[in-house]
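[Solved] Which block belongs to which protein?

Original post:
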Amino acid sequence: MLPQEWMELKQYIVDHYADKTSTEVVRLLSTNPMRQLYPNIAELAEVYRTIPPHTADVERDFSQMKTIKTCLRNRMTEKTLDAIMRIVIEGPTLKEYPFKKAVEAWAIKKNRRIKL
């Protein structure tokens, strides 16, 4: 099935989209009509779009990890490291972070008053 789809798609691209770049063709395969015509190739195109074209992002993530897990923090659990890494890599910038909302959410979690 896949080889037949591939042969048909190659001919279709030559006939209709010869002037397009490979990136444009992959994006085109994500549209609904193309997904119906070439479901297996469209699925492969989606997988292709998720693979990073270079290792710079991965290298940047490892550099971030080295700044988080230092000699002084060597007993950090994997779960904690994962949580901090997600915040550093995917979280908002300091300018965008809603500090007031975060403090309010933290305050209502439980009563933090010290009884004297």
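(Second protein starts here: sequence line, then its structure tokens.)
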Amino acid sequence: HSANSDDHATVMTTKVLEGHTLWVLTVAVAPDGQHIVSGSHDRSVRVWSLVTGEQVRLLEGHTDGVYGVAVTPDGLHVVSGSQDRTVRVWPLASGDEVRRFEGDTGQVYAIAVTPDGQHILSGGNDLSVRVWAMASGAEVRRLEGHTPVVSYIAGTPDGQ
């Protein structure tokens, strides 16, 4: 059977996750496939059960919109980046902020975690990508010269 303009795909909504009060700006799926994390212009990060569709955790502390979220490869932590110029780490189990990376000179729009879970990548409107050590919180590298803003980041599968 060949595709033509009369072929249509059917897409069905299986769950609607309600709770954010402003636009949802970013979404990540946890490695277990059971949870989804969302960041919003309402300054919150929310963790949802994909099984029940219920919110299981509310992560609050950012003072501006959350544009980037990621889940560590081991599924234990959520990482978020915000227009408040911070990157924050939250244990998925408790939701209490355990680390804050402050050093981005612009708003943070993109977040990624390396496959080994040892580094966080952040990018935004300061036209750089920063590499942070997860354990110490230290900035270990800055990649500058991007134009325009960095709005998406992905690491390589081997972490190199």
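Accepted answer:
You had them paired correctly. Confirming on the second one: The chain has a mean pLDDT of 88.
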